[in-house]
Amino acid sequence: MNSMLELSTLGTFVAVVLGLFLIPGPAVLLVLTRTVHGGRKAGIFTGLGIAVGDFVHTLGAAVGLSALLMTSALAFNAVKWIGALYLVYLGIRALREKPASGEMPASAPVSASKAFFQAIPAEVLNPKTALFFLAFLPQFVHPEHGSTFLQFTTLGLIFVGMSALYTTLIVLTIRPLGRLVGRLTWLRRWQNKIIGVLFISLGLRVATQTR
Questions:
Q1: Residue 55 in contact with residue 150, Cβ under 8 Å?
Q2: For residue 1, is it within any domain?
Q3: Is residue 8 part of a domain?
Q4: Is residue 11 assigned to a domain?
Q5: pTM above threshold 0.85
Q6: Domains held by the chain: number
Q7: Which of 45, 166, 175, 183 is the most buried (most CB within 10 A)?
Protein backbone atom coordinates (compact mmCIF):
# COMPACT_ATOMS: atom_id res chain seq x y z
CA MET A 1 0.00 0.00 0.00
CA ASN A 2 1.23 3.49 -0.82
CA SER A 3 2.78 5.02 2.30
CA MET A 4 1.74 8.49 1.11
CA LEU A 5 -1.87 7.63 1.95
CA GLU A 6 -2.62 7.46 5.65
CA LEU A 7 -4.66 4.56 7.01
CA SER A 8 -7.30 6.95 8.30
CA THR A 9 -7.66 8.44 4.81
CA LEU A 10 -7.92 5.00 3.23
CA GLY A 11 -10.49 3.90 5.82
CA THR A 12 -12.65 6.93 5.14
CA PHE A 13 -12.28 6.46 1.38
CA VAL A 14 -13.37 2.81 1.53
CA ALA A 15 -16.33 3.64 3.77
CA VAL A 16 -17.52 6.40 1.44
CA VAL A 17 -17.17 4.17 -1.64
CA LEU A 18 -19.21 1.45 0.05
CA GLY A 19 -21.89 4.03 0.73
CA LEU A 20 -21.86 5.14 -2.90
CA PHE A 21 -22.37 1.56 -4.04
CA LEU A 22 -25.69 1.53 -2.17
CA ILE A 23 -27.00 4.03 -4.74
CA PRO A 24 -27.21 2.03 -8.00
CA GLY A 25 -26.65 3.93 -11.23
CA PRO A 26 -26.59 3.21 -14.98
CA ALA A 27 -23.49 0.99 -14.62
CA VAL A 28 -25.34 -1.35 -12.26
CA LEU A 29 -28.32 -1.45 -14.63
CA LEU A 30 -25.96 -2.37 -17.46
CA VAL A 31 -24.48 -5.22 -15.39
CA LEU A 32 -27.94 -6.50 -14.45
CA THR A 33 -29.10 -6.38 -18.06
CA ARG A 34 -26.09 -8.30 -19.34
CA THR A 35 -26.38 -10.87 -16.55
CA VAL A 36 -30.07 -11.60 -17.01
CA HIS A 37 -29.91 -11.78 -20.80
CA GLY A 38 -26.34 -12.94 -21.40
CA GLY A 39 -25.46 -15.08 -18.40
CA ARG A 40 -23.13 -14.85 -15.44
CA LYS A 41 -19.92 -14.64 -17.49
CA ALA A 42 -21.22 -11.75 -19.59
CA GLY A 43 -22.30 -9.94 -16.43
CA ILE A 44 -18.93 -10.35 -14.75
CA PHE A 45 -17.04 -9.15 -17.83
CA THR A 46 -19.39 -6.19 -18.13
CA GLY A 47 -18.45 -5.26 -14.57
CA LEU A 48 -14.76 -5.61 -15.42
CA GLY A 49 -15.22 -3.39 -18.47
CA ILE A 50 -16.87 -0.75 -16.30
CA ALA A 51 -13.97 -1.01 -13.84
CA VAL A 52 -11.49 -0.41 -16.68
CA GLY A 53 -13.52 2.61 -17.78
CA ASP A 54 -13.46 3.93 -14.21
CA PHE A 55 -9.68 3.62 -14.11
CA VAL A 56 -9.42 5.58 -17.35
CA HIS A 57 -11.35 8.35 -15.60
CA THR A 58 -8.97 8.05 -12.65
CA LEU A 59 -5.99 8.64 -14.91
CA GLY A 60 -7.85 11.52 -16.54
CA ALA A 61 -8.41 13.13 -13.16
CA ALA A 62 -4.79 12.50 -12.19
CA VAL A 63 -3.37 14.31 -15.23
CA GLY A 64 -6.04 17.01 -15.23
CA LEU A 65 -7.96 15.97 -18.35
CA SER A 66 -11.24 15.71 -16.47
CA ALA A 67 -10.89 19.36 -15.44
CA LEU A 68 -11.52 20.25 -19.08
CA LEU A 69 -15.01 18.76 -18.86
CA MET A 70 -15.76 20.92 -15.84
CA THR A 71 -14.58 24.18 -17.39
CA SER A 72 -15.57 23.68 -21.03
CA ALA A 73 -19.24 23.31 -21.94
CA LEU A 74 -18.21 22.36 -25.49
CA ALA A 75 -16.02 19.48 -24.30
CA PHE A 76 -18.69 18.27 -21.88
CA ASN A 77 -21.41 18.30 -24.53
CA ALA A 78 -19.17 16.61 -27.09
CA VAL A 79 -18.35 13.70 -24.77
CA LYS A 80 -21.95 13.54 -23.56
CA TRP A 81 -23.41 13.21 -27.05
CA ILE A 82 -20.79 10.71 -28.21
CA GLY A 83 -21.59 8.52 -25.20
CA ALA A 84 -25.34 8.90 -25.67
CA LEU A 85 -25.16 8.06 -29.38
CA TYR A 86 -23.00 5.01 -28.63
CA LEU A 87 -25.59 3.64 -26.18
CA VAL A 88 -28.45 4.37 -28.57
CA TYR A 89 -26.48 2.62 -31.34
CA LEU A 90 -26.14 -0.49 -29.15
CA GLY A 91 -29.87 -0.34 -28.44
CA ILE A 92 -30.86 -0.04 -32.10
CA ARG A 93 -28.53 -2.89 -33.04
CA ALA A 94 -30.11 -5.07 -30.36
CA LEU A 95 -33.61 -4.21 -31.63
CA ARG A 96 -32.61 -5.23 -35.16
CA GLU A 97 -31.09 -8.57 -34.16
CA LYS A 98 -33.13 -11.65 -34.94
CA PRO A 99 -34.71 -13.18 -31.83
CA ALA A 100 -33.22 -16.35 -30.45
CA SER A 101 -35.00 -19.58 -31.32
CA GLY A 102 -36.82 -21.55 -28.68
CA GLU A 103 -33.92 -23.96 -28.39
CA MET A 104 -31.22 -21.33 -28.13
CA PRO A 105 -29.93 -20.54 -24.63
CA ALA A 106 -30.43 -17.05 -23.25
CA SER A 107 -26.67 -16.48 -23.16
CA ALA A 108 -26.33 -16.59 -26.95
CA PRO A 109 -26.81 -12.89 -27.85
CA VAL A 110 -23.77 -11.52 -25.99
CA SER A 111 -20.32 -13.06 -25.54
CA ALA A 112 -18.16 -12.20 -22.53
CA SER A 113 -15.58 -10.43 -24.70
CA LYS A 114 -18.24 -8.36 -26.46
CA ALA A 115 -19.82 -7.43 -23.13
CA PHE A 116 -16.39 -6.38 -21.81
CA PHE A 117 -15.40 -4.24 -24.78
CA GLN A 118 -18.83 -2.60 -25.01
CA ALA A 119 -18.83 -1.69 -21.32
CA ILE A 120 -15.50 0.17 -21.49
CA PRO A 121 -16.55 2.94 -23.93
CA ALA A 122 -20.01 3.09 -22.35
CA GLU A 123 -18.33 4.08 -19.07
CA VAL A 124 -15.48 6.15 -20.53
CA LEU A 125 -17.88 8.24 -22.64
CA ASN A 126 -20.01 9.23 -19.66
CA PRO A 127 -18.91 12.78 -18.74
CA LYS A 128 -20.85 12.58 -15.48
CA THR A 129 -18.49 9.82 -14.38
CA ALA A 130 -15.48 11.97 -15.26
CA LEU A 131 -16.82 14.86 -13.21
CA PHE A 132 -17.55 12.50 -10.33
CA PHE A 133 -13.95 11.32 -10.20
CA LEU A 134 -12.66 14.87 -10.53
CA ALA A 135 -14.81 16.01 -7.60
CA PHE A 136 -14.52 12.86 -5.46
CA LEU A 137 -10.89 11.71 -5.57
CA PRO A 138 -9.26 15.07 -4.72
CA GLN A 139 -11.03 15.01 -1.35
CA PHE A 140 -8.64 12.22 -0.32
CA VAL A 141 -5.46 13.50 -2.00
CA HIS A 142 -2.99 15.55 0.05
CA PRO A 143 -0.11 17.20 -1.87
CA GLU A 144 1.94 17.51 1.30
CA HIS A 145 2.10 13.70 1.50
CA GLY A 146 3.92 13.27 -1.81
CA SER A 147 3.11 12.66 -5.47
CA THR A 148 -0.50 13.52 -6.19
CA PHE A 149 -0.42 11.36 -9.33
CA LEU A 150 0.49 8.28 -7.28
CA GLN A 151 -2.18 9.11 -4.73
CA PHE A 152 -4.79 9.48 -7.48
CA THR A 153 -3.84 6.20 -9.12
CA THR A 154 -3.70 4.32 -5.81
CA LEU A 155 -7.17 5.51 -4.85
CA GLY A 156 -8.36 4.74 -8.36
CA LEU A 157 -7.06 1.18 -8.20
CA ILE A 158 -8.78 0.67 -4.85
CA PHE A 159 -12.03 2.01 -6.30
CA VAL A 160 -11.71 -0.19 -9.39
CA GLY A 161 -11.05 -3.28 -7.27
CA MET A 162 -14.04 -2.56 -5.05
CA SER A 163 -16.20 -1.87 -8.10
CA ALA A 164 -15.23 -5.16 -9.76
CA LEU A 165 -15.94 -7.06 -6.54
CA TYR A 166 -19.27 -5.27 -6.10
CA THR A 167 -20.50 -5.99 -9.63
CA THR A 168 -19.35 -9.62 -9.34
CA LEU A 169 -21.42 -10.01 -6.17
CA ILE A 170 -24.40 -8.53 -8.01
CA VAL A 171 -23.94 -11.02 -10.83
CA LEU A 172 -23.74 -13.98 -8.44
CA THR A 173 -26.82 -12.76 -6.60
CA ILE A 174 -28.90 -12.16 -9.72
CA ARG A 175 -27.95 -15.48 -11.37
CA PRO A 176 -31.16 -17.30 -10.30
CA LEU A 177 -33.18 -14.65 -12.15
CA GLY A 178 -31.06 -15.27 -15.23
CA ARG A 179 -31.87 -18.99 -15.06
CA LEU A 180 -35.57 -18.15 -14.76
CA VAL A 181 -35.39 -15.96 -17.85
CA GLY A 182 -33.73 -18.83 -19.70
CA ARG A 183 -36.79 -21.01 -19.03
CA LEU A 184 -39.28 -18.42 -20.28
CA THR A 185 -39.49 -18.98 -24.03
CA TRP A 186 -41.63 -15.90 -24.65
CA LEU A 187 -39.15 -13.70 -22.81
CA ARG A 188 -36.24 -15.15 -24.80
CA ARG A 189 -38.04 -14.10 -27.96
CA TRP A 190 -38.35 -10.56 -26.65
CA GLN A 191 -34.98 -10.26 -24.92
CA ASN A 192 -33.28 -8.35 -27.75
CA LYS A 193 -36.09 -5.80 -27.76
CA ILE A 194 -35.86 -5.46 -23.97
CA ILE A 195 -32.08 -4.97 -24.15
CA GLY A 196 -32.50 -2.49 -27.00
CA VAL A 197 -35.02 -0.40 -25.09
CA LEU A 198 -32.82 -0.40 -21.98
CA PHE A 199 -29.74 0.75 -23.91
CA ILE A 200 -31.69 3.49 -25.69
CA SER A 201 -33.10 4.60 -22.32
CA LEU A 202 -29.57 4.79 -20.91
CA GLY A 203 -28.47 6.80 -23.93
CA LEU A 204 -31.33 9.26 -23.47
CA ARG A 205 -30.48 9.54 -19.78
CA VAL A 206 -26.88 10.44 -20.63
CA ALA A 207 -28.07 12.90 -23.29
CA THR A 208 -30.17 14.81 -20.77
CA GLN A 209 -27.35 15.18 -18.23
CA THR A 210 -26.23 18.66 -17.31
CA ARG A 211 -22.96 19.76 -15.78
A1: no
A2: no
A3: no
A4: no
A5: no
A6: 1
A7: 45
